[in-house]
Amino acid sequence: MSANRPKLLIVDDGDRHAELAHRFLREYDYATRCELRGPCWSCERRAGCTLTHAHDLAEAREALERHPDVDAVLLDLVFELPAERLAPSDEPDLERRRRLEGLRILEAVRAERGELPVILMTSREELAAEEATLASDEFVALAGADAFDARALGLLVERILAARATVPTGDYFWGRSTAMAHLRRDAAIQARTSLPLLLLGETGTGKSALAERVVHAGAGRPGPFVSVDLAALPATLIAAELFGTARGAFSGAVDRRGRIEVAHGGTLLLDEIGNLPPEAQRMLLTVLEERRVTRLGESQARPVDVKLIAATNADLPSLARAGAFRADLYARLNPAARLTLPPLRDRLADLDELVAGFVRRAFASGSASGRDRALLEEYAQASGVAPTVAVALGKPPSEPSAITFVFGGPALAALRRHRWPGNVRELQQVATNASVFALADALQATRRGATSQARLVPISQTLVRRLLTGDEPSPRSEIALTLAPRPSLRQAARELERQLYERLFDETRGDFAEMARRLTGRASTAAARQVRLRFNQLGLKARGRRKST
Amino acid sequence: MNERQQLARLYHDVGKYVARTARNLPPEPDAEMIAMLVRDLYELRPSERASQLFAERAAGLSHPALAEVRALLGETDTLEPRVRAREPEAVARAAELACEVEARLRTLAADA
User: Fold this and answer.
1) What is the DSSP letter of A198?
2) pLDDT of residue A288
3) A251-284 pLDDT per residue, tens
4) Cα–Cα distance, B62 to A254 (Å, whole number)
5) pTM of the prediction?
6) Does the pLDDT at position A418 exceed 60?
7) d(Cα B34, Cα B29) in Å, to the nearest integer?
8) What is the pLDDT of residues A420-457, one digit of tens each?
9) Helix (H, G, I), strand (E, B), or coil: what is residue B4?
10) Does B33 contact A at CB distance below 8 Å?
11) Which of A66, A253, A428, A473 has the most CB atoms at less than 10 Å from its CB?
12) Other C-beta atoms within 10 Å of A209: how many?
């Protein structure tokens, strides 16, 4: 909901609904000054008003463009149509033709701002006549005697907005696509049930974030959110990790709670559930059926209360048909109520806002990457400006008040053309890397005294394209490490460290200063020397590797 | 347009709008609200009373209940000078009649 009072858009060819709302919704704390002539935004007395009135589809679109913070749309269903728009072949039933205009507007609003609640103000007869056309989950109706009842209208608006406010979102970005609006509504419903939830979607679409920030946050359960990435665990360790162990279950086993027990009272996300080994599938099915978990090597079952969320980008029905995934477990995962996250290529309308959000998040105080924030503060100090961030998409602002990252038209076009196989996660990496690289360049330029406008940090198309094609070594690249069990933690840690240095060496083409920058945030000679020393201590050879690359 | 469609339009164009302010009128309406009521009853279209639009939309319909609606709207017309003069009794009676017109037209449209 908007920060202050809720904002309403009334779409009605007449001014009666708007006048009623202006006059009678005062009790509901809406500003109510209006001249009632022409589109609302041209009204000289508009300041402070939270109602906007559009007379047709074109004005409704313009209103939504001008007022993106509208909270709800009140829509009349029946519109008067000028004679020139009434072709007999269109619809012989004139009354239906008038209703179709309202339906057309409803469809357009749903397509452009799928998350917005729409209240149809009409009669029950008109609703009944379009029963086959209207999807009941796309609107709420204020019909019959309530159609012009200000109290009923006010209460309905309040109820809708209150319900929206209770939908947990955290910092989850929903965007404006219809698919995401449906997802938001369904996720809020799913959060309230104790049934398992199946999350589907390509890699990087935000399944884990949705599970934690929306479903778990909305469930209001007292226990923790526990996430297990089954693709990152060796198959031999999965059962012990999930179900826990009793001392003596196997060599070196100790009494330990599994992740299911840890999640007791809360939510357990099993990411990449398709990677669950057969024996663990059987054990998980038992947990779901009996709400009890038995540690490996133990016969006593312990009660557990866990909201299970299973996420995957695999085709579980196919795996079940092939015998690789238990059909009875798949059925237990509540597939009928599955939620599917759309790939980024299907919600490109959200791309601009996602880019802006990721850049702001990268440099926010207390962000996950303190290094990016440190770079921003270093730049701010060198430039003599405050370390605040803004993002401009398209043209740069003439008088920026913050350090403004400018994604120009060509850079944005390159982003929009990309297919985004890694989806939102890939976009986050590209947007963050682009802004970090550009800021680093700007810092160097500032130190050389070569900047004219310290508050503008342009993101070039060339940089974006290099990042998209992978030509630029990425400081954010995710490195997959594999590990077979080692006799000791020390040896396991050393092996992981060796793999990390090896991968970084390859990615940076043997640039120890760059490796140091990625590992420590410092690229000084001393840091590079330390990294090189450790590289050698790990038994890695620089010379042969450089030649091979 | 068949009778069902005509009654639906009659309700939409007259019934809904005639009671717009009337159903929301507080016991002591202010001048702004009474001006809205006047618009609903006597200026439903520019210089066209609700009774005139009703007569136009109901032309050709023979349902007996329509005569009662016509009579109710006739009574509101007789109140016009007093409503415009903001006489409380006349305003209250006009609002009552408007709500009655809305209810009857709604029932007619629903039963058609």
Assistant:
1) E
2) 92
3) 777 888 999 999 999 999 999 999 999 999 999 9
4) 90
5) 0.54
6) yes
7) 6
8) 988 998 999 899 999 999 998 888 888 877 766 778 89
9) helix
10) yes
11) A428
12) 16
B10's enclosing H/E stretch is: helix B3-10
Per residue in A15-28, pLDDT (tens digit) is 787 778 777 775 44
Residue A334's pLDDT is what?
Answer: 84
User: From CA B97, how far away is CA A360, in angstroms rounded?
Assistant: 60
Beta carbons of A333 and A310 less than 8 angstroms apart: yes
Structure tokens at A476: 């954010």
Confidence check: pLDDT of B96 > 90? yes
Distance from CA of B10 to the nearest CA of A (A): 11
Average pLDDT over residues A331-354: 88
Residue found by looking up tokens 């006489």 in the block:
B87
- pLDDT confidence of residue A36: 47
* A420, two tokens: 């985004």
Q: A150 near A105, Cβ under 8 Å?
A: no
Give the Cα-Cα-Cα angle A417, A423, A424 (nearest 5 degrees): 105
Report the pLDDT averaged over residues A69-78: 84
Per-residue pLDDT tens digits for B19-74: 989 988 888 899 988 999 999 999 988 778 999 999 999 998 888 889 999 999 99
Min distance B102 CA to chain A CA atoms (Å): 8
User: How far apart, in whole angstroms, are the C-alpha atoms of residue A306 and residue A223?
Assistant: 9
pLDDT band at A171, cuts 50/70/90?
A: low
Amino acid letter, B54: F
For residue A236, give the H/E element and its range: helix A235-243
Q: Hey, CA dihedral for B33, B38, B41, B43, is it positive or negative?
A: negative
Coil, helix or strand at residue A295: coil
Is-contact A403 A387, C-beta < 8 A? yes
Q: φ and ψ at A406, to 5 degrees?
A: -110, 110
C-alpha A495/C-alpha A107 separation (Å) is: 57
- Quick one: DSSP state of residue B15? I
Across the interface, which of A23, A94, A144 has its CB nearest the CB of B106?
A: A144
Record: contact B110-A125, CB cut-off 8 A:
yes
Interface residues from chain A to B (CB-CB < 8 Å): 16, 19-20, 23-24, 78, 93-95, 123-126, 129, 144-145, 147-151
ipTM score assigned to the predicted complex:
0.83
DSSP state of A422: T
Spell out which residues of chain B touch residue A125, defining contact as CB-CB under 8 Å: 8, 11, 109-110
Taking CB atoms and an 8 Å limit, are A145 and B16 in contact across chains? no
Cα dihedral A163, A168, A174, A177 sign:
negative
Q: Report CB contact under 8 Å: B103, A93.
A: no
- Please tell me which of A303-312, A536-545, B3-12 the model is most confident about, judged by mean pLDDT: A303-312
Cα torsion for A88, A89, A93, A97, to the nearest 10°?
-90
Of A123, A145, A151, the CB nearest to B109: A123
Q: Helices in A244-396 by DSSP H: which ranges?
A: 259-262, 278-290, 316-321, 327-332, 351-362, 370-383
Question: CA A78, CA A252: separation in Å to the nearest integer?
Answer: 74
